[in-house]
Amino acid sequence: MAVVLLLSTVPVAAASAQADCPVPASLNVCKTCHALEPGKPSRPTGPNLVGVVNQPAMHSADFTRYSVAMKAAQAKGLVWTEDNLMAYIADPKAFLASVNGEQLQNAMAFQLKDEAKRKAAVEGLEALAACQ
Ligand code: HEC
C-alpha cells in the first residue's frame, strides 16, 4: 500500500517543480527581448534563454534572426560557459569579434557592464536551466 501511495505522488511532485520556476529577478533586464519561461517560444527580439548554459551558441531552434556574427561563432564552436556568458553580456559585439577574429554584424544591442549584476544574471540563467 505504501508503495502505491509513493508512486502516485511522483507526477504531482514533478508538476509542482515545473510551476515553481519563477524568473530570477537578476534577469528582469533581459525580459525586454528574451523569453525566459520553459517551453515558451522565442520572441522576434531574442531567443528563449532557458537551458542556454553550457550549450553551443544558437541554442534556440525556433529563433530565426541569429546574426552573421553569432552564426560564425557557432561555426567556430562557441559554447556558453560561465566565462563566455560573462564576457558576452558585458559587450556582445566585442566578445563575438574576439571569437570570430573579425568584426561582423551582431544582433544583441544591450550591455551589462556591472560585474556583480552580470554574475547575478549568469546565476539566474543557471537556475533557469534546472527548470526545463
Ligand atoms: C535589446 C534586446 C536584448 C536584451 C535586453 C538582451 N538580449 Fe540577449 N540577445 C538578443 C538578441 C537579438 C540575441 C541574438 C544575438 C545574435 O544573433 O547576434 C541575443 C542573444 C543572447 C544569447 C545567445 C543565445 C543563443 O541562443 O546562443 C545569450 C546567452 C543572451 N542573449 C543573454 C542575455 C542576457 C543574460 C540578457 C540580460 C542580462 C540579455 N541577453 C539581454 C537581444 C537582447
From TrEMBL:
This is Cytochrome c domain-containing protein. Keywords: Heme, Iron, Metal-binding, Signal. InterPro entries: Cyt_c-like_dom, Cyt_c-like_dom_sf. The keyword Nucleotidyltransferase does not apply. GO terms for molecular function: electron transfer activity; heme binding; metal ion binding. It comes from Hypericibacter adhaerens. Residues 1-19 form the signal peptide. Residues 15-129 form the Cytochrome c domain. It comes from the Bacteria.
